[in-house]
TrEMBL record:
It is found in: Endoplasmic reticulum membrane. This is GDP-Man:Man(3)GlcNAc(2)-PP-Dol alpha-1,2-mannosyltransferase. It is a single-pass membrane protein. It comes from Hortaea werneckii. Residues 97-109 have a biased composition (Low complexity). It comes from the Eukaryota. Residues 51-62 have a biased composition (Basic and acidic residues). Keywords: Endoplasmic reticulum, Glycosyltransferase, Membrane, Transferase, Transmembrane, Transmembrane helix. Pfam families: ALG11_N, Glycos_transf_1. Pathway: Protein modification; protein glycosylation. GO terms for biological process: protein N-linked glycosylation. Its EC number is 2.4.1.131. Residues 120-328 form the ALG11 mannosyltransferase N-terminal domain. The keyword Calcium does not apply.
Amino acid sequence: MALLFTLLVLLLSTAITFSLAPYLFRFIGRALGAQLRSRTHQRRELLRNRAAAEEKEEEAQRKAATPTPPSPAKNRKSSTSLDDDDWEKVTPKDVADTPTPHDPSTTTDTKSKDASFDGIIAFFHPFCNAGGGGERVLFAAIEATQLRYPQALIIVYTGDHDASKSQILTNVRNRFNIHLRPARIHFLYLSTRDWVLASRYPRFTLLGQSLGSLVLGWDALGMLVPDIFIDTMGYAFTLGLCKWLFPTSVATGAYVHYPTISTDMLRSLHSEVESNQGLHAGLGKGLLGKGKEIYWELFAKLYSLVGGSIDIVMTNSTWTQRHMQSLWRNARTASGKTHPIEVVYPPCAVGELHDHIPVTLEGESTQRTNNILYIAQFRPEKCHSVILDAFTTFLQTHPHLSPPPKLILIGSVRDDQDEKRVYKLRLQAQPVKDRVEFVVNAQWPQILEALRTSSVGVNGMWNEHFGIGVVEYQAAGLISVVNDSGGPKVDIVVPDAKEGKPTGFHATTAQDFATGFAQALSLSAEEKFAMRVRARESSWRFSERVFSDAWVRQVEGMVGVLR
């Protein structure tokens, strides 16, 4: 009898423990969150005061540099430090599609909406100085946020210790032509960024980087607890951590460039074609392959659980949206998240490219060369090697093309690994070295010149999440030859809306790309011009204004979560 009683007590205790475990887990999270908020409160106030001081200094410098013209007193504006004239000064005037409060065609009416939100909006972007498409999204989002909520303080969590605030903002102006208000943005430097480097996890890389991002997220929130926490680099687990610590007091948002895991990745394990379906194509065979498949499926479930906690989710393309809906929709529904996963196309310099690069029939002979341009960071998944092979094949089959075509590879280099990758690509290009040009860490004027004079733009990545470079090709009037997958296929290089005619070519293998180059360059001048015009008109769907309006609506949703 005593033994039976003991067993009943143990079973009851176990049941109570399991039933209370979720409550205990949430309690621990809230307690740790309260501790972090208390510990970082002083820094929060310090940054607010610093922003106010820098704002006054900027105002004084502007007044000293620009004498106020005489005008009737009744027409003078108030002397507040955030009037509309100030915003004109920090908005790039030469970018036609960048919204300003004075632009009557801008759909985001910042004057009629409540702009009183003065909280802290933090962006989690550990590699903010990388200079790629993700960084364009980050800083265009910050610009739009500053215009919508001028009193808000912007924080960027970064691991770029080798770049100061002024250096980062200078790089943003030079690379993207985006002008931010310095007083209202601060950078907090993470000390644990190496925890998310793929090189740290030679095995179980996805899980390792995701768990490592929790360390990085703790590092960030340990420096400052914001009111809104936005991940713009794909570290969804940091948002799950934030929601565990601050379930109601911090709104979270995710801008998803690419799903960490996807059904396409699982399917690619069994692909027989290893060159065009990602780094893991064809690796699902045998016992180890089955183990990898199980590991990925379990990780996908964990990834879905994290996604269910995020308040606002945006994706950069229809392709990404479909995958995120497949992965996160059920978890979001179960957790009561009512905001749909929406597409917010990345901002592209469409207006500037339209202004700076003319597309005319005469230009086919006076402006355009037969050059083929590839703008992409020098990373393995960008498949530069495949494009080099394709270009070599193309030259072999078209040796007498005039003028002689060149392959121009423009991209940024982040670290030693990228530099080694460029070195290996140069070695691969040796047989045709006179026809291949590498441009590393190019400035925007260099990119503009390449876009102005090249004829074909190429994108070689399988399942590219979006493809800002492809939009730039279209806006500049290039004929695109892109991988037959992902955003370039589904969203960008699609038949034009008016007549349903092609705006470019799709390819899969190196031979396909070589054929695409030949098709694009063999068109008559009239056919090339017509395709360039169709692609150029299509590119307006991805302008900076369209992004700004869409982004602001999402941020308003995050502010609404707090109210």
